[in-house]
Amino acid sequence: METMIVEGAAKPNRPVIVEGLPGLGSVGRIVTREIIRSLKAKRIATLYSPLFPYYALVDSRGVVRLPWNEFYYWRSMRPGREIVVITGDCQPQTSAGQYEVADTIMEYAEKYSSRLIITVGGYTAQVEDEAKVIGAATDRDTVKRLTELGVIVDKSGIPVVGVSGLILGLAQFRGLPAACLLGETSGYVPDPKAAKSVLRVLVKLLGIKLDLAGIDRDIARMAEVESRIRKAERDMDLALRGRIAEKTVSYIS
Q1: pTM, to two decimals
Q2: Check whether domain 4-210 has CATH 3.40.50.10900, yes or no
Protein backbone atom coordinates (compact mmCIF):
# COMPACT_ATOMS: atom_id res chain seq x y z
CA MET A 1 0.00 0.00 0.00
CA GLU A 2 1.18 3.52 -0.75
CA THR A 3 -0.10 6.97 0.16
CA MET A 4 -2.95 7.64 -2.26
CA ILE A 5 -6.14 9.62 -2.78
CA VAL A 6 -9.22 7.72 -3.85
CA GLU A 7 -11.47 10.19 -5.68
CA GLY A 8 -15.19 10.21 -6.43
CA ALA A 9 -16.98 11.70 -9.41
CA ALA A 10 -16.83 15.38 -8.39
CA LYS A 11 -13.95 17.34 -9.93
CA PRO A 12 -13.27 20.77 -8.37
CA ASN A 13 -12.33 23.74 -10.52
CA ARG A 14 -9.80 26.17 -9.01
CA PRO A 15 -11.06 25.64 -5.45
CA VAL A 16 -9.90 27.20 -2.21
CA ILE A 17 -8.56 24.32 -0.11
CA VAL A 18 -8.93 24.45 3.69
CA GLU A 19 -6.87 21.85 5.58
CA GLY A 20 -7.33 21.13 9.28
CA LEU A 21 -6.13 17.91 10.90
CA PRO A 22 -5.93 16.89 14.59
CA GLY A 23 -3.36 18.92 16.50
CA LEU A 24 -3.04 21.47 19.31
CA GLY A 25 -6.42 21.98 20.97
CA SER A 26 -8.02 20.08 18.06
CA VAL A 27 -8.44 23.55 16.53
CA GLY A 28 -7.94 22.42 12.93
CA ARG A 29 -10.36 19.53 13.22
CA ILE A 30 -13.04 21.63 14.95
CA VAL A 31 -12.78 24.37 12.31
CA THR A 32 -13.07 21.97 9.38
CA ARG A 33 -15.90 20.06 11.06
CA GLU A 34 -17.90 23.28 11.47
CA ILE A 35 -17.34 24.34 7.85
CA ILE A 36 -18.43 20.91 6.57
CA ARG A 37 -21.50 20.86 8.81
CA SER A 38 -22.59 24.44 8.13
CA LEU A 39 -22.09 24.31 4.35
CA LYS A 40 -23.39 20.72 4.10
CA ALA A 41 -20.27 19.83 2.11
CA LYS A 42 -20.12 16.39 0.50
CA ARG A 43 -17.24 13.93 0.71
CA ILE A 44 -15.51 13.56 -2.66
CA ALA A 45 -12.18 11.88 -1.88
CA THR A 46 -10.30 9.89 0.76
CA LEU A 47 -6.57 9.83 1.46
CA TYR A 48 -5.08 6.57 2.76
CA SER A 49 -1.49 6.11 3.90
CA PRO A 50 0.61 3.33 5.49
CA LEU A 51 2.30 6.17 7.37
CA PHE A 52 -0.77 6.80 9.53
CA PRO A 53 -0.80 5.17 13.00
CA TYR A 54 -1.10 1.39 12.85
CA TYR A 55 -4.61 0.71 14.10
CA ALA A 56 -8.09 0.17 12.70
CA LEU A 57 -11.16 2.12 13.78
CA VAL A 58 -14.46 0.46 14.67
CA ASP A 59 -17.76 2.33 14.16
CA SER A 60 -21.01 2.02 16.15
CA ARG A 61 -22.12 -0.87 13.90
CA GLY A 62 -18.95 -2.83 14.56
CA VAL A 63 -17.56 -2.21 11.08
CA VAL A 64 -13.78 -1.71 10.79
CA ARG A 65 -11.92 0.81 8.63
CA LEU A 66 -8.41 2.21 8.31
CA PRO A 67 -7.53 5.75 9.49
CA TRP A 68 -7.98 8.30 6.74
CA ASN A 69 -8.07 11.95 5.72
CA GLU A 70 -11.27 13.04 3.99
CA PHE A 71 -11.88 15.67 1.29
CA TYR A 72 -15.23 17.49 1.34
CA TYR A 73 -16.56 19.69 -1.46
CA TRP A 74 -18.85 22.71 -1.55
CA ARG A 75 -19.81 24.86 -4.52
CA SER A 76 -21.71 28.12 -4.35
CA MET A 77 -24.67 28.76 -6.60
CA ARG A 78 -22.59 31.63 -7.90
CA PRO A 79 -19.94 30.42 -10.40
CA GLY A 80 -16.29 30.53 -9.39
CA ARG A 81 -16.70 29.82 -5.67
CA GLU A 82 -15.64 26.30 -4.72
CA ILE A 83 -14.15 25.01 -1.48
CA VAL A 84 -12.47 21.70 -0.68
CA VAL A 85 -12.15 20.96 3.05
CA ILE A 86 -9.58 18.39 4.21
CA THR A 87 -9.88 16.83 7.64
CA GLY A 88 -9.36 13.40 9.16
CA ASP A 89 -8.59 11.04 12.00
CA CYS A 90 -4.87 11.67 12.38
CA GLN A 91 -1.54 12.84 11.02
CA PRO A 92 1.47 10.67 10.17
CA GLN A 93 3.73 9.98 13.16
CA THR A 94 7.09 10.52 11.44
CA SER A 95 8.68 13.49 9.68
CA ALA A 96 8.98 11.46 6.46
CA GLY A 97 5.29 10.59 6.71
CA GLN A 98 4.35 14.23 7.26
CA TYR A 99 6.23 15.20 4.11
CA GLU A 100 4.65 12.44 2.03
CA VAL A 101 1.07 13.22 3.05
CA ALA A 102 1.61 16.99 2.64
CA ASP A 103 3.13 16.42 -0.80
CA THR A 104 0.20 14.19 -1.83
CA ILE A 105 -2.21 16.96 -0.82
CA MET A 106 -0.15 19.45 -2.81
CA GLU A 107 -0.32 17.21 -5.89
CA TYR A 108 -4.11 17.27 -5.52
CA ALA A 109 -4.08 21.09 -5.18
CA GLU A 110 -1.92 21.41 -8.28
CA LYS A 111 -4.07 18.96 -10.25
CA TYR A 112 -7.17 21.09 -9.70
CA SER A 113 -5.40 24.49 -9.94
CA SER A 114 -6.21 25.57 -6.38
CA ARG A 115 -6.31 29.37 -6.20
CA LEU A 116 -5.56 29.44 -2.45
CA ILE A 117 -4.64 26.87 0.20
CA ILE A 118 -5.42 27.68 3.84
CA THR A 119 -4.14 25.52 6.68
CA VAL A 120 -5.65 25.91 10.15
CA GLY A 121 -4.55 24.76 13.58
CA GLY A 122 -3.58 25.81 17.08
CA TYR A 123 -0.80 28.00 18.50
CA THR A 124 0.36 27.42 22.07
CA ALA A 125 -0.21 30.53 24.18
CA GLN A 126 -1.60 31.75 27.49
CA VAL A 127 -5.04 33.02 26.48
CA GLU A 128 -6.20 35.80 28.81
CA ASP A 129 -9.49 36.87 27.19
CA GLU A 130 -10.33 36.21 23.55
CA ALA A 131 -8.06 33.94 21.53
CA LYS A 132 -6.03 35.81 18.92
CA VAL A 133 -5.29 34.42 15.47
CA ILE A 134 -1.69 34.09 14.31
CA GLY A 135 -1.02 33.86 10.58
CA ALA A 136 1.51 33.69 7.79
CA ALA A 137 1.42 33.34 4.02
CA THR A 138 3.57 32.55 1.02
CA ASP A 139 3.21 35.98 -0.58
CA ARG A 140 2.98 39.61 0.56
CA ASP A 141 -0.47 40.25 -0.91
CA THR A 142 -2.00 37.47 1.17
CA VAL A 143 -0.10 38.64 4.27
CA LYS A 144 -1.57 42.12 3.72
CA ARG A 145 -5.07 40.64 3.45
CA LEU A 146 -4.58 38.72 6.70
CA THR A 147 -3.39 41.88 8.44
CA GLU A 148 -6.52 43.72 7.28
CA LEU A 149 -8.61 40.99 8.92
CA GLY A 150 -6.87 41.45 12.27
CA VAL A 151 -4.55 38.44 12.04
CA ILE A 152 -1.18 38.82 13.82
CA VAL A 153 1.57 38.24 11.26
CA ASP A 154 4.68 39.49 13.08
CA LYS A 155 5.51 36.30 15.01
CA SER A 156 8.89 35.90 13.34
CA GLY A 157 10.48 32.50 13.81
CA ILE A 158 7.40 30.59 15.00
CA PRO A 159 7.33 27.01 13.71
CA VAL A 160 4.15 25.87 11.96
CA VAL A 161 4.44 22.16 12.67
CA GLY A 162 2.98 19.07 11.06
CA VAL A 163 1.20 18.72 7.73
CA SER A 164 -0.16 22.28 8.01
CA GLY A 165 3.33 23.78 8.11
CA LEU A 166 4.75 21.57 5.40
CA ILE A 167 1.88 22.44 3.06
CA LEU A 168 2.92 26.10 3.32
CA GLY A 169 6.53 25.35 2.46
CA LEU A 170 5.66 22.97 -0.37
CA ALA A 171 3.08 25.39 -1.77
CA GLN A 172 5.72 28.11 -2.00
CA PHE A 173 8.06 25.63 -3.68
CA ARG A 174 5.36 24.81 -6.24
CA GLY A 175 4.35 28.43 -6.78
CA LEU A 176 0.87 28.06 -5.24
CA PRO A 177 -0.54 30.73 -2.89
CA ALA A 178 -1.06 29.51 0.67
CA ALA A 179 -1.71 30.85 4.16
CA CYS A 180 -2.10 29.51 7.68
CA LEU A 181 -4.40 30.60 10.51
CA LEU A 182 -3.54 29.48 14.05
CA GLY A 183 -5.86 30.08 16.99
CA GLU A 184 -4.27 30.70 20.38
CA THR A 185 -4.89 27.75 22.70
CA SER A 186 -3.49 26.10 25.80
CA GLY A 187 -3.59 22.92 23.73
CA TYR A 188 -4.50 20.59 26.60
CA VAL A 189 -8.15 19.96 25.68
CA PRO A 190 -10.34 20.51 22.58
CA ASP A 191 -10.66 24.28 22.28
CA PRO A 192 -13.81 25.44 20.43
CA LYS A 193 -13.16 29.03 21.53
CA ALA A 194 -9.85 29.11 19.63
CA ALA A 195 -11.56 27.43 16.67
CA LYS A 196 -14.27 30.11 16.62
CA SER A 197 -11.64 32.86 16.46
CA VAL A 198 -10.21 31.19 13.34
CA LEU A 199 -13.68 30.72 11.83
CA ARG A 200 -14.40 34.43 12.20
CA VAL A 201 -11.40 35.19 10.02
CA LEU A 202 -12.23 32.46 7.51
CA VAL A 203 -15.78 33.77 7.05
CA LYS A 204 -14.38 37.11 5.91
CA LEU A 205 -11.49 35.65 3.95
CA LEU A 206 -13.69 33.25 1.99
CA GLY A 207 -16.78 35.42 1.77
CA ILE A 208 -19.08 32.72 3.16
CA LYS A 209 -21.75 32.51 5.84
CA LEU A 210 -21.51 29.91 8.58
CA ASP A 211 -23.92 28.95 11.33
CA LEU A 212 -21.85 29.14 14.51
CA ALA A 213 -24.63 28.13 16.91
CA GLY A 214 -23.15 24.63 17.22
CA ILE A 215 -19.69 25.84 18.18
CA ASP A 216 -21.22 28.29 20.67
CA ARG A 217 -22.86 25.32 22.39
CA ASP A 218 -19.50 23.52 22.42
CA ILE A 219 -17.87 26.58 24.01
CA ALA A 220 -20.54 26.63 26.75
CA ARG A 221 -20.07 22.89 27.40
CA MET A 222 -16.27 23.23 27.58
CA ALA A 223 -16.59 26.16 30.00
CA GLU A 224 -18.72 23.95 32.25
CA VAL A 225 -16.21 21.07 32.02
CA GLU A 226 -13.31 23.41 32.82
CA SER A 227 -15.23 24.80 35.81
CA ARG A 228 -15.74 21.26 37.13
CA ILE A 229 -12.06 20.43 36.62
CA ARG A 230 -10.99 23.56 38.54
CA LYS A 231 -13.40 22.69 41.36
CA ALA A 232 -12.06 19.13 41.52
CA GLU A 233 -8.49 20.46 41.64
CA ARG A 234 -9.40 22.83 44.49
CA ASP A 235 -11.13 20.04 46.40
CA MET A 236 -8.10 17.74 45.96
CA ASP A 237 -5.77 20.51 47.10
CA LEU A 238 -7.86 21.16 50.23
CA ALA A 239 -8.04 17.45 51.00
CA LEU A 240 -4.27 17.10 50.61
CA ARG A 241 -3.62 20.06 52.88
CA GLY A 242 -5.99 18.57 55.43
CA ARG A 243 -4.10 15.25 55.45
CA ILE A 244 -0.76 17.06 55.78
CA ALA A 245 -2.12 19.08 58.71
CA GLU A 246 -3.40 15.91 60.43
CA LYS A 247 -0.02 14.20 60.10
CA THR A 248 1.77 17.30 61.43
CA VAL A 249 -0.51 17.48 64.50
CA SER A 250 -0.09 13.73 65.12
CA TYR A 251 3.70 14.01 64.88
CA ILE A 252 3.85 16.91 67.34
CA SER A 253 1.53 15.15 69.77
Answers
A1: 0.88
A2: yes
